[in-house]
Design a protein that fits this description.
There is one protein chain. With 422 residues, this protein is α+β, with helices and mostly antiparallel strands. Helices cover 19% and strands 40% of the residues. The chain contains 8 helices and 30 strands. Helix 1 (21-35) packs antiparallel against helix 2 (89-99), helix 1 runs antiparallel to helix 6 (220-229) and helix 4 (155-168) packs across helix 6. The protein is elongated. The termini are far apart.
């Protein structure tokens, strides 16, 4: 496997290019979210700078802070064939906001005056360019030329995977294994999994190519943001490296990143490269009822029914509206009638403690009798909010102390119940 970096840096004496200001604003916001710039504020100035280039009518915005590289491309009508410069990210974002993020905009680059001027709808704002020595000292952008694993799928499928896995992804940075996305293949299918200890989400990437078995724990934020962005792309590609490599920080010094695996995500207008997390993801398949890896002592599913995802999400939101510390009871009585009940107390068996109840339209009912399973309302609502419009969800219950399984398409989410007073 070979990993290459681009060490070319060219400054033009001046250039003007027209572009869509709204697209520029959207792209800057995407870079900020993907790189986590709202949470990490590098003290090194070069790590707060954005690289901008315009080649053959395409403007490329690139950001790299050694953890993640984000590159976004958009159309730009340039007066010069090549324009490359560095500008402080916050300065450019402020300039875009000042002129209004909509309609036609013109960027004018004056290297002699070391300024970038942005004009749109009669408004003008400027941003200072980075000094020339910053371009020399800036870390070069990583890329993977030969990958150990490559997955190709459609943008809409990956977008759905991103929504599902985001439901269960942890956000506690002190537990990095729970903030990531486990990507693995058994040689037949490629699946992504996330968990925050209360929920587990597993989704099939719908890979159009056959890949060798592999496993990797991807950084969660870049993966989820790329999935959201890929919704309008025809095909997207995910690639992994698996050998030692080095990234050149400048022409005189090498920064060694040996044993750090890289993941690359690519669509028509975005390329992301990030480190693969060096952490152990929980063994999740043994928790899935009916899976070959599941424990033989796991209780059997006693109740199964299907319902519409979006209408159920609306019912859950309605019954829990206006209350705090709400638990939701998902119940099926002996006659096969399903209800969702909001309760603010420690028990579900008191009629006086119930805030509201809604009946759910279910079918394909299989059950051994009445069952009530309590869940934290925000968790249950998040699961049904992730279901695409028109999709029906199969709900599988075991007992009040075991996780419930929610399945749709080639995706599933496990949700742990909350403990109630006896």
């Amino acid at each position: 496997m070979t990993i290459t970096t681009d060490t070319t840096a060219t400054m033009t004496t001046g250039a003007t290019f027209a572009l869509d200001a709204r697209a520029l604003s959207t792209n800057l916001a995407f870079i900020k979210r993907t790189a986590g710039m709202t949470r990490r504020h590098p003290q090194i100035e070069t790590l707060r700078e954005l690289r901008v280039s315009v080649v053959d009518g395409t403007m490329t915005l690139a950001y790299f802070d050694y953890d993640v590289m984000v590159e976004v491309r958009q159309l730009a009508d340039a007066s010069d064939d090549v324009a490359e410069f560095h500008v402080h990210f916050d300065a450019l974002a402020t300039a875009v906001k000042a002129v209004g993020a909509k309609g036609h905009a013109v960027l004018s680059l004056d290297v002699a005056a070391t300024t970038l001027t942005l004009e749109a709808d009669g408004m003008t704002a400027t941003a200072a360019l980075a000094p020339a020595d910053h371009i020399v000292d800036a870390p070069t952008l990583p890329s993977i030329t030969e990958a150990s694993s490559e997955i190709v799928t459609t943008g809409d499928v990956l977008a759905s995977v991103g929504v599902t896995t985001a439901v269960a992804r942890g956000t506690d940075d002190t537990l990095p294994m729970l903030t990531g996305v486990r990507l693995e293949s058994d040689g037949r299918v490629v699946e992504a999994a996330t968990t925050d200890r209360f929920k587990l989400a597993v989704a099939d990437l719908g890979a159009t190519n056959i890949v060798e078995p592999f496993g990797a724990l991807l950084a969660g934020r870049p993966f989820v943001e790329f999935c959201k962005r890929s919704a309008k792309s025809d095909l997207v590609t995910l690639r992994l490296s698996n050998v030692e490599h080095k990234l050149t920080a400048d022409g005189r010094q090498n920064v060694d990143y040996a044993n750090h695996q890289l993941a690359e995500y690519r669509s028509d207008d975005v390329t992301i490269v990030s480190r693969v997390l060096d952490a152990e993801f929980p063994r999740f398949r043994q928790l899935i009822p009916g899976h070959a890896s599941a424990s033989s002592s796991m209780p059997s599913i006693t109740t199964r029914f299907t319902l519409d995802g979006k209408s159920t999400a609306a019912r859950i939101k309605s019954v829990a509206s206006g209350a705090q510390n709400i638990r939701i009871g998902l119940a099926l009585d002996a006659d096969g009638v399903a209800t969702v009940t909001a309760d603010g107390h420690e028990r579900f068996d008191s009629e006086q403690s119930r805030l509201s109840t809604a009946t759910l339209a279910v079918d394909d009912v299989e059950h051994d009798g009445e069952i009530v399973v309590p869940f934290a309302a925000p968790y249950l609502a998040a699961i049904f909010a992730a279901v695409p419009k028109g999709e029906r969800v199969t709900v599988e219950l075991t007992n009040a102390n075991r996780p419930a399984v929610f399945r749709w398409r080639d995706q599933l989410v496990l949700l742990m119940p909350v403990r109630m007073a006896s």
